[in-house]
Amino acid sequence: MAFVILLSCVSRIFDIKLINFMKKNSLSKINILNLLILSYSLHILVFSDFPNLLSIMIFCIARIMFGIFISLAYRGINFNGKELNCNLCEIKNWFFYVIGLAFGALMYLLLNEIYSNDFLNQGGWKIFYIIIILVILLMLIIFKFVYKTKIFLQFEYDKSKSFNLTEALSTNFLIIIPLLSFAIFSSSTWLPKFSNPENLHFLNYDFLYLFLTIMTLVFITPLANLVGKRKSVIFFNISIIVFATICSFIKHDSSYSIDFLKLFIALVASFSICNLVFQLQLKKQSTFNVITHFNLSLFSLAFLLPIAFYCSIYYTINYSVIYIFFALVYFINNIIFSLNKNG
Fold first, then answer.
1. Which end of the chain is more exposed for a tag (fewer CB within 10 A), N or C?
2. Are residues 96 and 201 part of one domain?
3. CA separation (Å) from 127 to 29, 44, 122, 124, 236?
4. In which band, very low, low, confident or very high, does the pLDDT at 144 lie, cut at 50, 70 and 90?
5. 240 and 125 both lie in a single domain
């Protein structure tokens, strides 16, 4: 099931193919909210008496559609004749993105607390999708009767900036760190039940750490802007490299050291978002390329998560490796950023 869910991350890289197909066939003015309702409704069509293969196929199709449609909405929509896009070069859009992830995870945890596992396994999980569909329907009603308009997909994009795959992998690999922290939080209700007992304390990633990531991002961004974007990026890179390297040599045999690691992950997650946004602004990346970079990061995440889950289930987590991973990511990023003249 985890593989099926991650299909929405993999499918995003094919959104440009769909744009070209829709433009060639003159499929314009498609309401993005209708497409999202369609992708969410497919989940509800699955019943317990369906053959397993059929259920998996429906889920796969739904997740693939959802990933592509969300990516198209990020690239641009037409609202009241104005083109709007999710410009990930602006930190405020990352606030909405992180808060949206936190809200979805909290709603999932709330349903898990209210209803029993038997009820959820027998179809109660559909409540999650029904709530989302009702929210989208409410948005449709508001846009139709209040704004008297629709939200259409916008297929125009800017190719003036060349796409550098190496730069995309190095720079946007930073965003995998906060995404991994969110994945740990969202899986903290079920993953500890199947994991190695020695990993239980680390995998209990409370909402407090996710909240800390959001609040740190709120306070660190204006401070970093005052210091200067380039200086802040260099400071983030060097600081995390030094601290992560030092911490990799410390013994992690107590609960306090593991709690410190989770605190470190929460802080690095917020620094990574701020660092990434500043680098994108310094390089003056086009919205088209930024979304493509982000989709590539999610594509990489879809392969890293199963490996991380497998290791946490069958092996004891080596916490020094996590620190080394952070140091390595920021070391590579710092080298490429220093060599980039535009940065």
1. N
2. no
3. 30, 9, 12, 6, 42
4. confident
5. no
